[in-house]
Amino acid sequence: MIDHSLVKRFRQEVGDRLAHQRRLDQANGLPPMTGEDERQFARALISQVLEEHARSEIGLGRTPPTVEEEEALAAGIHAALFGVGRLQPLLDDGEVENIDINGCDRVFVSYADGQELMHDPVADSDDELIELIQILAAYSGLSSRPFDTANPQLDLRLPDGSRLSAVMDVTVRPAVSIRRARLGKVFMSDLVGNGTISQDVGRFLRAAVGARKNLMIAGSTNAGKTTLLRALANEIPPSERLITVERALELGLDQFPELHPNVVAFEQRLPNSEGQGEISMAELVRRSLRMNPSRVIVGEVLGDEIVTMLNAMTQGNDGSLSTIHANSSMEVFNRISTYALQAGERLPIDATHMLIAGAIDFVVFIEKRNDYHVGGRLRRYVSSIREVNGCDGRVLSSEVFVPGPDGGAVPHAPISCLEELAAHGYTPGGW
């Protein structure tokens, strides 16, 4: 077991020495250390501090830490300085799916095999947990994000791509949820391999992206919408200019220039403590249209940006992708109508349905379930694909793929744009 009180003490010592070196470099006119140089220098400082601690323990007649204990302390200090503290081992575990923290000592971890277990505390107090989140907020995303009594809500992307959501003061104790991004670079073949989609659905989606169809991916929380969106985006030719719009940077398409060399990633900016400086999702979608996009990708639709996004889809920006929370492919239309009513335009339902019919070509529904008959793992799979056919007072649509015997989507009805899809390699497997 690692002694977290020692980690905390040594983190302060190393941090002070690191800050002192920065001041010396500045006073001597030297350029600041790069991030990697600073990490290497910190490792040397950590070794120095641990060596001093061992000598001190021997001088006091006590047993110094073993080699294994020193390695654990060094990893803990480095994680406290540059990582996410005691959360780091969980984020390093490839089997961890989600981490829910209801106060520093109430930590629940969900694993890929469907298990949910209680974990050791991630901080010694709730105040220390809040401090950890504040440190992460200061160094994540495009700008510092406040997390305090005036700004009790926080969403951000961790260095490994995981999504963190935190609240304080609106709950009895600070609460944090971390959703792992286990697949950074993911392709359609990966999703076929893990059973998320069938070969036929994979060919269909690949052709839909190639034919520049507008796709809305729907599903519940943690169903795998973002992973599917990444895989679809990786079917877009590298010659196209992509603009992504997100509340907190998560898609990370700009991290893979070999796949997408021309990407601009927009992130919503929250207001400062005076309530100034906010840049909303809707404003960013509007701005993206002036940036010469080939396609606009909206990471997750949660509010009034829906009207701007649908307008973008009907103004020549074909091939756009987005995700939305919904419990079925059919419910997506009602969810969009609700968001449109809340927007500044206050679109009536009839007008929204006309906008949907002109903007969205297909709704792809993905779901999850604990399937103990298939290896006992949490299973995610596309179960339905719905084609939007028009509007007659309501959105007209047909479910072209429906749940099959194992839940996965199978062909069900003719596709009206089949010729376009066929030109991009799709031949239906039969109905």
Write the layout of secondary structure elements.
Blueprint: H1 4-27, H2 35-59, H3 67-82, H4 88-92, E1 96-102, E2 107-111, E3 116-119, H5 126-139, E4 153-157, E5 163-167, E6 175-179, H6 188-193, H7 199-210, E7 215-219, H8 225-233, E8 242-246, E9 263-267, H9 281-288, E10 295-301, H10 305-313, E11 321-325, H11 331-342, H12 349-359, E12 362-371, E13 377-391, E14 395-403, E15 409-411, H13 418-422
Parallel strand pairs: 7-11, 7-12, 8-9, 8-10, 10-11
Antiparallel strand pairs: 1-2, 1-6, 2-3, 4-5, 5-6, 12-13, 13-14, 14-15
Helix pairs in contact: 1-2, 1-3, 2-3, 9-10, 10-12, 11-12
Describe the 3D structure.
- It is a single chain.
- By secondary structure, the chain is an alpha/beta fold.
- Helix content is 36%, strand content 22%.
- It is built from 13 helices and 15 strands.
- It has helices spanning 4-27, 35-59, 67-82, 88-92, 126-139, 188-193, 199-210, 225-233, 281-288, 305-313, 331-342, 349-359, 418-422; strands at residues 96-102, 107-111, 116-119, 153-157, 163-167, 175-179, 215-219, 242-246, 263-267, 295-301, 321-325, 362-371, 377-391, 395-403, 409-411.
- A 9-stranded mixed sheet has the order 9-8-10-11-7-12-13-14-15, sandwiched between helices. Strands 3-2-1-6-5-4 form a 6-stranded antiparallel sheet.
- Strand 13 (377-391) and strand 14 form a beta hairpin.
- It is elongated and about 85 Å long.
- The chain starts with a helix and ends in a 9-residue tail after the last helix.
